[in-house]
């Protein structure tokens, strides 16, 4: 990771080159230099280059059984409404649904914006701090005695990688598992093993993709997602080291680890435990009105 001094030095080199009379003699090289200059300036200002790009969001159910899987559905719909409100495109690339319409896990892809939003940030930069455990307190719709129930789901947001030189995974570190795609589709669904699950053996990180038509396309997307997970883990470790903090390789989806609570009973309150932002207008939040929370997260 380059120091601020090294970044500033590279910026000055590029600006000097751009002042040269022959800078535009090679148009492709000139445009690449301009993009590199902007990325370096963003990095110097604290915007990493992936913050302007797309995102991959996965919601995992934790403790709570049917209630937790239903909470994952609630979170999925909340984020979908946020995307629709902001006119962001998105697609589901994998889902593991239960018999009640809830989700054991579900993964969405949010592509880069045509024009940067949120102060030049893209979906990853805006959503990355939604990562963490979310907690729901309500009267359980699955409990005949109408008792209050607490359930947990975890949101993971990683940058959308296409190709990168930053993370290279040796083939011997990969475990490849194939299965039949489970979602609706054409005649190939449930006939050929097109769904791909990749496991990074050293860290046990895993991804599952079934949205593409061919096994090769699913494997390529899964590999990019795994690279993004490793990139994010590396960045979190770097930041933690700079701050003298310890970072756990695993997060328990349970009490005590939540970043945000959604309380529907005995009172109504949504509270972010990191920023202190809270509101009693729970319905608005669950309908995608997350701006107040997302704005506060920029300072994390």
Features:
11 strands; 300 residues; 8-stranded mixed sheet; Double Stranded RNA Binding Domain; Alpha-Beta Plaits; alpha+beta; 7 helices; 3-stranded antiparallel sheet; 3 domains
Architecture overview:
This protein has 300 residues and is α+β, with helices and mostly antiparallel strands. It is 33% helix and 24% strand. It has seven helices and eleven strands. The strands form two sheets. Strands 2-3-1-5-4-9-10-11 form an eight-stranded mixed β-sheet. Strands 6-7-8 form a three-stranded antiparallel β-sheet, with helices on one face. Strand 7 and strand 8 form a beta hairpin. Helix 1 runs antiparallel to helix 2.
Task: Please summarize what this structure is.
By secondary structure, the chain is an alpha+beta fold.
Gyration radius, in Å: 21 Å
Fraction of helical residues = 25-40%
Characterize the biggest β-sheet: 8 strands, mixed
Give the CATH class of the largest domain.
Answer: Alpha Beta
What name does CATH use for the topology of the largest domain? Alpha-Beta Plaits
As for the number of domains, it is 3
Summing up helix and strand content along with how strands pair, one would put the structural category as alpha+beta
Q: For the largest beta sheet, what order do the strands appear in spatially?
A: 2-3-1-5-4-9-10-11
DSSP, total strands = 11
What is the CATH architecture descriptor of the largest domain?
Answer: 2-Layer Sandwich
Q: Between the first and last Cα atoms, what is the distance in angstroms?
A: 20 Å
- Total DSSP helices: 7
Poorly predicted regions: 184-191
| Amount of beta strand | 15-25%
N-to-C SSE series? HHEHEEHEEEEEHEEEHH
Mean pLDDT across the residues is 86
Form type: globular
């Amino acid at each position: 990771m380059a120091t601020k001094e090294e970044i500033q030095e590279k910026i000055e080199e590029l600006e000097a080159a751009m002042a040269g009379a022959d800078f535009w003699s090679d148009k492709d090289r000139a445009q690449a230099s301009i993009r590199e200059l902007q990325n370096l300036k963003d990095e110097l200002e604290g915007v990493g280059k992936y913050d302007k790009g797309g995102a991959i969001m996965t919601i995992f159910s934790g403790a709570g059984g049917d209630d937790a899987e239903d909470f994952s559905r609630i979170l999925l719909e909340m984020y979908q409404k946020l995307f629709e409100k902001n006119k962001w495109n998105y697609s589901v690339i994998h889902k593991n649904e239960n018999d009640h319409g809830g989700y054991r896990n579900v993964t969405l892809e949010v592509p880069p914006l045509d024009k940067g939003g949120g102060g030049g940030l893209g979906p990853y930069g805006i959503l990355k701090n939604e990562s963490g455990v979310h907690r729901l307190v309500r009267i359980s719709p699955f409990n005949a005695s109408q008792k209050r129930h607490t359930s947990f789901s975890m949101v993971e947001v990683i940058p959308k990688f296409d190709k990168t030189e930053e993370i290279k995974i040796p083939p011997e570190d990969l475990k490849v598992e194939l299965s039949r795609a489970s979602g609706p589709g054409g005649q190939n669904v449930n006939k050929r093993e097109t769904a791909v699950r990749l496991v990074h053996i050293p860290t046990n990180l895993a991804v599952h993709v079934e949205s593409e038509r061919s096994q090769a396309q699913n494997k390529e997307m899964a590999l990019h997602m795994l690279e993004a997970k490793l990139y994010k883990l590396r960045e979190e470790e770097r930041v933690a080291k700079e701050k003298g903090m310890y970072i756990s390789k695993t997060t328990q989806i349970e009490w005590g680890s939540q970043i945000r609570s959604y309380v529907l009973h005995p009172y109504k309150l949504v509270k972010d435990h990191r920023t202190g932002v809270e509101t009693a207008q729970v319905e608005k939040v669950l309908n995608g009105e997350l701006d107040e929370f997302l704005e506060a997260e920029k300072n994390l």
